């Protein structure tokens, strides 16, 4: 049941629906099914925003907030003539993603976790109290660049800071080529700039207590998301947001995420290079193409570190993220190989059991 009327098209377009998504839906046999966008995922069930309103549906496949899906309406009141009162709505198909914000699972394994799908802009939120935590910003920028979205660094709670310009300049050194904005959701200073940067589907990421939900509420113009206090002792906040959730607003849609204590990278080499374009550009000037940037003659990277034009901390951060990504890739290869061996053993056992039964 693809949208046909102008009113339904305008409703879905608020969530990011366009002609390309409609063509994908048609290719996935969308007849009789409701197109919609996942607004929340919760233990095998999802909230889907459709032209007929919010639908609670079962979802047998692992989806992510921001996914475009086709819903079998079942007995949903808004399902239309194809609905079956005896069946609950369920997700019949997840449309291919354009972009995906992915991190390694917090368990430390090499598996990936999709934080949000079909994202256009990533607002990397940094609370003003967290001055000097550039390593986290670099890591989140690598994550954002790898997703295919456009990152923007947002320094929050600037009403508590005197030297705002200095803090922005410090963050800019760790975010080459990335727009760095300062905002106070309390006073409204800088809010228009952030709203202008929040294009399309915008996801807010950052640590607990960064003010993501407060900033989202300010952008939405209403208290739509719960907010919590930050401990004065260490500047950390509780996970007020416990679910990733998508909320429409005038400029598109916002995705609020729980605070990220750990941000593991997986298959993110391109994102790391984009987050460290200054280092990559220096490496291109080395005498040898396979320079390890250690003791080789003509190493432009080591020369920049010795001259102080490239902070050694930043060079070490780049190397650390690359090592982590390589380790995750190796773990992924090992895990996949182990899974293949496991499947092979299962098949072999089943075949042997069948042969024994035949020989009886």
From TrEMBL:
Localization terms from the record: Cytoplasm
Binding residues for Zn(2+): 286, 291, 293, 299
Residue ranges occupied by any CP-type G domain in the UniProt entry: 109-263
PROSITE patterns: ENGC_GTPASE, G_CP
Pfam families listed in its UniProt record: RsgA_GTPase
Cofactor: record remark: Binds 1 zinc ion per subunit.
EC number: 3.6.1.-
InterPro entries: G_CP_dom, P-loop_NTPase, Ribosome_biogen_GTPase_RsgA, RsgA_GTPase_dom
Keywords: Cytoplasm, GTP-binding, Hydrolase, Metal-binding, Nucleotide-binding, Ribosome biogenesis, RNA-binding, rRNA-binding, Zinc
Region called Disordered, residue ranges: 71-90, 339-360
Cofactor(s) of this protein: Zn(2+)
Residues binding GTP: 156-159, 206-214
HAMAP family in the cross-refs: GTPase_RsgA (MF_01820)
Family note: Belongs to the TRAFAC class YlqF/YawG GTPase family. RsgA subfamily.
Subunit structure: Monomer. Associates with 30S ribosomal subunit, binds 16S rRNA.
Function: One of several proteins that assist in the late maturation steps of the functional core of the 30S ribosomal subunit. Helps release RbfA from mature subunits. May play a role in the assembly of ribosomal proteins into the subunit. Circularly permuted GTPase that catalyzes slow GTP hydrolysis, GTPase activity is stimulated by the 30S ribosomal subunit.
Name of the protein in question: Small ribosomal subunit biogenesis GTPase RsgA
Source organism of this protein record: Actinomycetospora chibensis
């Amino acid at each position: 049941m693809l949208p046909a009327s102008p009113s339904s098209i305008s409703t879905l377009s608020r969530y990011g629906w366009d002609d390309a998504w409609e063509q994908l839906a048609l290719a996935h046999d969308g007849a009789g099914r409701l197109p919609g966008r996942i607004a929340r995922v919760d233990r095998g069930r999802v909230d889907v925003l459709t032209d007929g309103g919010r639908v609670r549906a079962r979802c047998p496949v692992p989806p992510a907030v921001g996914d475009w899906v086709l819903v079998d309406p079942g007995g949903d009141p808004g399902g239309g003539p194809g609905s079956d009162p005896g069946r609950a709505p369920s997700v019949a198909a997840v449309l291919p993603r354009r972009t995906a914000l992915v991190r390694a699972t917090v368990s430390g394994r090499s598996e990936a976790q999709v934080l949000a799908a079909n994202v256009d802009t990533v607002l990397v939120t940094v609370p003003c109290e967290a001055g000097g935590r550039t390593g986290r910003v670099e890591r989140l920028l690598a994550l954002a660049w790898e997703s295919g979205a456009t990152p923007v660094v947002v320094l929050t709670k600037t009403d508590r800071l005197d030297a705002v310009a200095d803090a922005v300049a410090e963050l800019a050194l760790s975010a080459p080529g990335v727009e760095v904005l300062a905002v106070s959701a309390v006073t409204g200073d800088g809010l228009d700039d952030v709203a202008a940067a929040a294009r399309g589907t915008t996801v807010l990421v950052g640590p607990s207590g960064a003010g993501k939900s407060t900033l989202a509420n300010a952008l939405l113009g209403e208290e739509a998301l719960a907010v919590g206090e930050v401990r004065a002792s260490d500047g950390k906040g509780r996970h007020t947001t416990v679910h990733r959730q998508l909320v429409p607003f005038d400029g598109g849609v916002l995705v609020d995420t729980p605070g990220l204590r750990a941000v593991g990278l997986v298959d993110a080499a391109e994102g790391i290079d984009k987050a460290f374009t200054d280092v990559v550009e220096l490496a291109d000037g080395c005498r040898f193409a396979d320079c390890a940037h250690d003791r080789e003659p003509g190493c432009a990277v080591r020369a920049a570190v010795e001259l102080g034009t490239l902070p050694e901390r930043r060079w070490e951060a780049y190397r650390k993220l690359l090592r982590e990504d390589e380790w995750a890739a190796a773990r992924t290869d090992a895990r996949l190989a182990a899974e293949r061996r496991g499947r092979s053993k299962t098949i072999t056992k089943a075949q042997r059991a069948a042969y024994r039964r035949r020989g009886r």
